[in-house]
Design a protein that fits this description.
single chain; about 775 residues; alpha/beta; Rossmann fold; Fumarate Reductase Iron-sulfur Protein, Chain B, domain 2; seven-stranded antiparallel beta sheet; seven-stranded mixed beta sheet; about 30% helix
Length: about 775
């Protein structure tokens, strides 16, 4: 929770809100923004920082009350709290080679233009400001702007204050005057409504004045993960949160940006009406290795897994698989041969002692089975649900040679669920050994690393960008596959052990790795330095096909779509996060993420088709997820590939143009290469397209830590088969190194990192 220090009403609908946010304040610079969330049900919303006080640890924003979230924040008083404030995000404004600058601000954009004008003025630039407002009643910051410029020109559309007219009229007048006097402006900083910035850029281009614009736009993440803030700059896709928010205005496709800004207008209005109505109402025992086992179940098939009916579950977000009963679990455990040399363990990235925990299930010692799993895996309830057991442990099971393997994953889930429902024990806090370690990211690798280090007595702090810990477990995997209460329970156990989890903290922005290690002169909020850092920040940057139409309204990355649903509960009417209505959806890709997106879209009422360029045998998703998708009514267009996204005359998706494919020779991974069939193009109607083509490591930390070594694909390079980076005291693992992989592989990397960190600190 973040305390509101002050909420000052500047005009009828303009407010200056000051938050107590020391992590943001200590690093904030002009031009950067933060993400905030008012309460549990609120949306994540970007807003540019207007000022900050490093000594006081506060940061201020100026906003216009226009929708539900801004109205709710405006209603808060000093001493109230908001749920989350995270930042500073985006790149600071640049003032190199600026000498004579004209700053154009429109409405609430003046709150962003003012600190930039102030900084340019401080650096010795000649600064003129044009501040435009609709009418006198919404004029703000006049005195502040006047104090940091050579000339201030106040404009109102209706002439009720200052000069009557638009900012563009005054701008052209000043440019003409400067040209006539031989004193032409060398830069223009323009911040305000998108149409205003578009026309300002048209004018400055005519006069050859370099123009920077602020393009804060739709996003839900703020660190490069969701892909929602994409825009086209100089014909290339850019992301506001990573590449901006400032861009060369002469290169921005404003028409596209204006169209995309309207995606959630209708939904935001509904949220506003609902919130307003609500506010009015408120005013009212270890099995012996190699021992003999009685084989009570020689069935070649697993015990069937109880599930919701497909035509029921495709309309809700409740968990699909209902889990084994005690009788089913014991019967399935009796299929295990308890091999003297268990091959199944070789397929487990964390080396769970599989025969031993299954032996305890057979004996109905479920608590003992749970603790046997915990010796190697810190997240059994999660792994039992989302691990691809069919490609890992179960693929090695000897029972699978002439039948189906033992249901190892199903038994792991049963054991974890039984313990949660019947034992519900929390671990005791472990006494620390005096050594401190920082973990970046609270996904599977970060949680596994933190857990193992805590068990060894280390004082561990986990830093998480989002407002809730869990990483991909929280934002990526849907509730019907992995209930979030289960994720939270596992995190609560870590906290009980003594692990400190700091949310709303973007490492690389609010603090650097060097600061964590005490290698920077600036102290880390008064705390002692950490002796080692583990980077488990994951791979969250979405990939898009290089085809026309990616920026049409109705095109989403799977990351954005799933984050809105899973983390921000957009499907639940109690929450404010908007979600565009979808009726006919095309999902491009066929991995697990694609299945998740398709099945979520189906639950939202859409007719869903998965488009994949290879055949059924090559589908990378888990077989179980693919089968579930088909059962739930998801359509599949296999051996076809999108070549263009089609839109109506207003820029909204109307269809997908595809070409049919055939399989050729195998590629370097052994999969047959898809080849286009000439003349086979066809169109399919849809009103939305979800791109689920994989992810790559987020570039944010890479930009902030250039002395780490990175691969061509953006992953952190580690030494040999270890988790040690080239930077002393820094370790990395999971998707941040390998790119997108499985939860259990990420956990394996986190465990390996914990052991390496322990050895490193002990050797000092």
């Amino acid at each position: 929770m973040f305390k509101i220090v002050n909420n000052e009403r500047l005009s009828d609908n303009m407010f200056r809100v000051t938050f107590e946010a020391p992590l943001v304040a200590r690093k904030a610079q002009p031009g950067q923004f933060l993400m905030f969330r008012v309460d549990e049900f609120g949306e994540r919303m970007p807003i540019t920082i207007s000022s900050y006080d490093r000594e006081a640890g506060t940061v201020s924003v100026i906003m216009q009350r226009v929708g539900s979230t801004t109205a709710l924040l405006a209603s808060k008083k000093a001493g109230d709290y908001v749920a989350d404030v995270v930042g500073p995000l985006g790149n600071p404004a640049e003032f190199d080679d600026m000498h004579k600058v004209v700053v154009v601000g429109g409405g609430s954009g003046c709150a962003i233009a003012w600190p930039q004008a102030k900084e340019a003025h401080r650096l010795g630039c000649d600064v003129d400001i044009i501040a435009g407002f609709r009418t006198k009643g919404i004029v703000v910051l006049e005195e502040e702007m006047r104090a940091c410029c050579d000339h201030l020109y106040m404009m109102t559309d209706d002439g009720t204050y200052g000069e009557k007219g638009f900012t563009t009229v005054k701008l052209k007048e000043l440019l003409e005057k400067a040209k006539a006097e031989g004193k032409q402006y060398d830069h223009c900083i323009c911040i305000g409504p998108l149409p205003m910035m578009k026309f300002v850029c048209q004018i400055t281009k005519e006069y050859g004045v370099a123009t920077m614009v602020d393009m804060n736009c739709i996003m839900i993440d703020g660190s490069g993960m969701c892909g929602g803030c994409r825009l086209t700059v100089d014909g290339k896709m850019k992301f506001t949160c990573v590449d901006g928010p400032e861009f060369d205005g002469h290169l921005v496709d404003f028409d596209e940006a204006i169209a995309r800004s309207k995606i959630y207008e209708a939904q935001e209005q509904k949220v506003f009406e609902r919130r307003h109505h609500y506010c009015n109402l408120q005013a009212m025992a270890d099995a012996e290795e190699g021992g003999e086992v009685s084989m009570a179940n020689m069935s070649p098939k697993k015990n069937p897994f109880p599930e919701q009916d497909p035509n029921v579950r495709n309309k809700n977000f409740e968990e699909v698989a209902l889990g084994y009963t005690v009788e089913m679990a014991v019967d399935e455990a009796n299929r295990c041969l308890n091999c003297p040399r268990p091959a199944c363990m070789s397929g487990c990235p964390v080396n769970v002692k599989i025969p031993q925990f299954i032996a305890r299930v057979r004996e109905q010692d479920f608590k003992g089975a749970y603790h046997k799993i915990l010796e190697d895996s810190s997240l059994p309830a999660i792994c039992g649900r989302v691990c691809p057991q069919e490609k890992q442990c179960e693929s090695k099971c000897v029972r699978g040679i002439k039948g189906e393997p033992v249901g190892i994953g199903r038994l792991e889930r049963f054991v974890a669920d039984w313990n949660r429902e019947n034992a519900d024990e929390m671990p005791e806090k472990i006494a620390t050994n005096g050594h401190r370690v920082a973990v970046i990211g609270s996904g599977p690798s970060g949680l596994a690393c933190a857990s193992d280090l805590a068990k060894l007595g280390y004082d561990v702090t986990v830093y998480e960008h989002f407002h809730k810990a869990g990483g991909v477990l929280a934002y990526g995997i849907p509730e019907f596959r992995l209930p979030k209460a289960i994720v939270q329970k596992e995190i609560d156990k870590l906290v009980a052990m003594g692990v400190n989890i700091v949310c709303d903290a973007t490492i690389g922005k609010c603090m650097s790795i060097d600061e964590l290690l005490g290698k920077d002169a600036e102290k880390l909020l008064g705390d002692d330095k950490y002796e080692a850092v583990f980077i488990g920040s994951g791979a969250g940057l979405p990939k898009f096909q290089n085809i026309p139409g990616l920026s049409y309204c109705g095109v989403f990355s799977a990351n954005e779509f799933l984050t809105r649903i899973n983390l921000m509960h957009a499907y639940d009417e109690r929450y404010d996060t908007p979600l565009m209505p979808i009726h006919v959806t095309a999902v491009v890709g066929a991995g697990n993420v694609a299945m998740d997106a398709a099945r979520c879209a189906k639950r939202l009422g859409a007719d869903v088709t998965v488009v994949y360029r290879r055949g059924e045998e090559e589908i990378p998703a888990r077989k179980e997820e693919y089968e579930h998708a088909k059962e739930e009514g998801i359509n599949f267009h296999l051996l076809c590939n999108p070549v263009e996204i089609l839109a109506d005359d207003k820029g909204w998706v109307r269809g997908l143009k595809c070409i049919r494919m055939e399989l050729g020779e195998p590629d370097e991974k052994g999969r047959r290469r898809p080849i286009e069939v000439p003349g086979s193009e066809f169109e399919m109607a849809c009103d939305s397209v979800i791109m689920a083509l994989g992810t790559s490591p987020n570039p944010l930390l890479r930009k902030a830590t250039p002395d780490l070594e990175y691969s061509d694909r953006g992953g952190i390079v580690v030494q040999d088969d270890t988790v040690t980076t080239m930077k002393d005291g820094v370790f990395a693992g999971g998707d941040a190194v390998t790119g997108a992989a499985t939860v259990i592989k990420a956990m394996g990397a986190g465990k390996k990192a914990a052991a390496a960190i322990d050895a490193y600190i002990r050797s000092k």
